[in-house]
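Lecture notes, unit on protein representations.

Consider one protein chain, 103 amino acids long.
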Amino acid sequence: MRWQAVIAAVVALAFLATLAAAQAPQAPEAEVPAVAMLADLVVLRPFGLAALVLGTATFIAALPFSVPTKSVKQAARKLVVEPAAYTFARPLGQVDALRSPTP
């Protein structure tokens, strides 16, 4: 019963993350080649979905270790939210749309 609540919370967190990313202001879109869109749709999105499923499972397995160290938010962001945003919120064909700028 407890695991069902944890799974429901993780799914809700992933859903909220994609909603927040979808509502974020977007920069003007540049023209993306059709080949990049096709490669994104056929190759990168399925890998992103697999990363999301694997990250969610890893997040759930890591909860007993991350709760005592108070790193649940950081683990959720890296293992669930970022793969969800990469898979569902990123514009089709724009691979570097969610990369953070390097200092």
